[in-house]
Structures are given as structure tokens and as C-alpha cells.
Amino acid sequence: MKIPIKRAYEAPSAEDGYRILVDRLWPRGLTKDKARIDLWLKDIAPSNELRKWFAHDLERWPAFKSKYILELKSKNEALSLLHAKLKEGVVTLIYAARDEEHNEAVILQELLGRKSAR
Fold first, then answer.
1. Burial profile 72-81: b = 16 or more Cβ within 10 angstroms, e = fewer
2. Cys staple from 105: which of 5, 39, 41, 51, with CB 3.0 to 4.6 Å?
């Protein structure tokens, strides 16, 4: 199953299904009405310490990815909720980062895709 990801600043669409924001911080300058977020799952986002350490420095991406995956191992409740929503239908992971290839939604998409392929 392919799990779509989308930047928070892109217009919502019917194809998005259930929209889950996976960032710890609300996207700057975006109203709740315009964002059309169904669930803000802050608990699944990287810790503040990890987020600040990464600071979208691409040289730190491999280490960030490894550290975030380790953090996710202790986030059973948030992951269970995410898996439950995926069973109900289309779920789009929403993120705010400018970098579309290096953000937590990409990591979650990869991990969840692997789990659903089993």
C-alpha cells in the first residue's frame, strides 16, 4: 500500500483521505481551516531535541533518520493509532518542511509502507 505524503501548504484534495499532521509544531502561517487537518499526531514527530539538532542539515540526514527510527520504537500508542487509521482507508501524512525528500513524513512513509507490505 502506498501512503501519500503532502506538504501542509499544498491545497487539500478529496484524494487525501484522512489527513494526519506528523510535525511537532503547527505549520507557520497556516490556519486550521485552510490546512484541513483531521488529526495532529504530535507524539509521532521527532523530539524537540532531535528536530533542533537536525536543523535540516543534509549532512545529518542519515544520522537523523537512524535516531528518529530509534525514537519511534518508544511511540507505540501513536504508531498503533496510525496503523488503525491506515486500515480504515486512505491516510495522507502531512508535513511542513520545505525539503520534500528529507523530513519525518518520508521516514514514516517508508516504515509504514514496509510494514503494510508484510
1. beeeeebbeb
2. 5
Sorted by sequence, the CB contacts under 8 Å of residue 102 that are 6+ apart come out as 56, 58, 61
Q: Do 5 and 109 meet the contact criterion of CB atoms below 8 Å apart?
A: yes
Per DSSP, 100 falls in state: S
Tracing cell 483531521 back to the chain, one arrives at 38
Backbone angles phi, psi at 57, to 5 degrees: -85, 110
The pLDDT value given to residue 53: 97
Q: Cα separation of 53 and 17, whole Å?
A: 32
Decide if 77 contacts 42 (C-beta within 8 A).
Answer: no
Averaged in consecutive runs of 10 residues, what is the pLDDT profile of the chain (118 residues)? 92 96 96 95 96 96 98 95 94 96 96 70
Confidence (pLDDT) at 113? 83
